Amino acid sequence: MTSHVRIRRAYDAPERIDGYRVLVDRLWPRGLSKEELPYDAWKKDLAPSPALRKWFGHKAENWEQFRDSYQTELRAPEQIERMKALIAAAKKAGQRTITLVYAAKDAEHNHALILADELNRHYR
Question: Is there a contact between 89 and 123 (Cβ–Cβ < 8 Å)?
Answer without folding.
Answer: no
